[in-house]
Amino acid sequence: MAANGNVETFVELIRRASTQLPADVVNALEQGKAREEESGLAGKALGTILDNVELARDTSAPICQDTGTPVVWFHHPVGVSTRALAADFQEAVRQATERRYLRPNAVDTLTGRNTGTGAGRGIPFLHFEEWDEPRIEVRMLLKGGGSENVGAQYRLPDTPLKAGRDLEGVRRVVLDAVFQAQGKGCAPGVLGVCIGGDRVSAFETSKKQLLRPIVDTNPIPELAELEERLLSEGNQLGVGPMGFGGKTTLLAVKIGVLDRLPACYFVTVTYMCWADRKASVSIDEGGEVTWLS
Amino acid sequence: MAELKLPVSEEAIRELKVGDFVELTGRMITGRDAAHKWLMEDVREEVVPFMKDTVIYHCGPVIAQNDDGSYDFVAAGPTTSIREEPYQADVIGRYGLRGVIGKGGMAGRTLKGLAEHGAVYLHAIGGAAQVLARAIPSVERVFMLDEFGVPEALWVIQVDKFPVVVSMDSHGNSLHDEVEAGSKRKLEELIGL
Questions:
Q1: Domain boundaries, chain A
Q2: Which residues of chain A are within 8 Å of residue B182 when distances are taken between CB atoms?
Q3: Residues of B known to be catalytic
Q4: CB A114 to CB B128 under 8 A?
Q5: Dihedral of the CA atoms B54, B123, B111, B183 (nearest 10)?
Q6: Is A233 touching B (CB cutoff 8 A)?
Q7: Is this prediction's pTM over 0.80?
Q8: Architecture of domain A7-17+63-144+277-291
Q9: CB of B54 less than 8 A from some CB of A
Q10: How far is A101 from chain B, CA to nearest CA, in Å?
């Protein structure tokens, strides 16, 4: 595959994610608004959010000024250079920043200076996996910083929360994470949870859960049940949109699982803000592009 | 919805109560993490006239520069305010601010500072970057752009009917404390603590 062959496609992927909220997320926000009193703080907040989503789509401008970290999963066939894909994506981030689909969002941690290009050490964050299909699939999240700050990783058992090493323990710490977040992660949020794994693999897996549609059914029945229960109980906490109080605190809970070491039992929660920005694309052998979302 | 012109008097600010919807019109300034640290390291005389009796907006915008050198706010929602908790009360006192706009609310030290100095915390809708950018028709000037970069610079802006909710007032009331207390009770019930 030619170098720079995919830059334009990746810029468009970023534009779509930054400016067009996926339909499943919009539906969930509309359902939330229907549950809230229209003239109350929660109803008005959701009304403004939905107006904003429409305005961003119509004007092709970022939904949120924190355009986040691009977190990207590539699936590629045998023989495709992952270095070429990475170089193309890096270039796409720079161009998308110039075109203001992204804010210059990378800060040199030691000097405090903004790199100005949108790219930096560790930004964007790219994952590559080889597969048997002849096409390349790219799935991306734009993960905002405010919600990233309220993510959490628990180590079970957790004595204060009376959380043991079982799914009941998982339920207890996840509800605590929703409580701790209050409105600070831009509620109503979507939770990506990973049970097990280590401190690295678990965060990646929790983020990957966010690629799932808002409404789907976890193939593992006990996790499907837990997801439903946590969504309902999380909403009962009454944090509400923006933490103003209300019935809509969460839009979805998605749980993945990894095996663990005997000594470790991590429960890892990634909080995604209501601006749950994601997009995916498929590129076939001939370079034909198909937008998946 | 009440309209509030900036700059604003202490008296008008003291009338505001938690839960009030307010639309702001006039001049304000943006400032976030780097700005708050910088504002407290020294008295920054150059920004005093742009802070007195107005509000600071916790915002790191997306900016466009026009051919004539002027700037536009392209996307401009609030950022999480709690990071400024160590500085906020002192920044309000030192620079004579009448309010803070952000999201997520702030804690006890700021709440006390609001009561002491006659200021309020105004909550904008997080993520509503387009709705809010529309309420910012012009950019007057910018401080510390080269040093801090676009998101962290202090932008002096004109706003027109900029929509916010009073979530912490100057009488010691905080919507965030109320919601947190209610959700804590519910959490304890759900997990039997």
A1: 7-17+63-144+277-291, 146-272
A2: 238, 245
A3: 36
A4: no
A5: 180
A6: yes
A7: yes
A8: 2-Layer Sandwich (3.30)
A9: no
A10: 9
> E strands, chain A, where?
69-76, 125-130, 136-143, 152-155, 189-195, 250-257, 266-272, 277-283, 289-291
Given its phi and psi angles, is residue A68 left (phi above 0), alpha (psi -120 to 50 degrees) or beta?
left
Closest to A42 in 3D by CA, of A286, A258, A247: A247
B129 touches A: beta carbon within 8 Å: yes
Question: Cβ of A81 under 8 Å from any chain B Cβ?
Answer: no
User: In this structure, is the dihedral angle defined by the CA atoms of residues B34, B36, B40 and B43, taken in order, positive or negative?
Assistant: positive
Across the strands, what pairs with A8?
none
B193 vs A275: CB contact, 8 Å cut-off?
no
Q: Structural domain tally of chain B?
A: 1
Percent of chain B topping pLDDT 70: 100
Q: What is the mean predicted confidence (pLDDT) over B71-97?
A: 96
pLDDT in tens, B21-78: 999 999 999 999 999 999 999 999 999 999 999 999 999 999 999 999 999 999 999 9
Residue of A49, A156, A242 best to disrupt the B interface, most CBs of B under 10 A: A242
Tokens 């305010």 belong to B81
Q: Are A252 and B189 in contact (CB under 8 A)?
A: no
More confident site: B193 or A149: A149
* Of the partner residues B80, B149, B163, the one whose CB lies closest to the CB of residue A116: B149
> CA torsion B21→B163→B168→B181, rounded to 10°?
80
- The pair of structure tokens assigned to A2 is 């030619």
Residue range of the domain that includes B43: 2-191
- Which tens digit of pLDDT belongs to each residue from B102-154? 999 999 999 999 999 999 999 999 999 999 999 999 999 999 999 999 999 99
| Residue owning tokens 């229960």 | A229
In chain A, which stretches have pLDDT less than 50? Answer: 1-3
Tally of CB atoms within 10 A around A264: 14
Query: Which CATH number does the domain housing residue B63 bear?
Result: 3.20.130.10
Non-local CB neighbours of A95 within 8 Å, separated by 6+ positions: A7, A11
Question: Is B182 part of the contact surface with chain A (CB cutoff 8 Å)?
Answer: yes
Q: What is the ipTM of this complex?
A: 0.92
Q: How many CB atoms within 10 Å of residue B67?
A: 5
| The pLDDT of residue A293 | 83
What pLDDT is recorded for position A1?
47
Q: Which two tokens stand for residue A203?
A: 């965060």
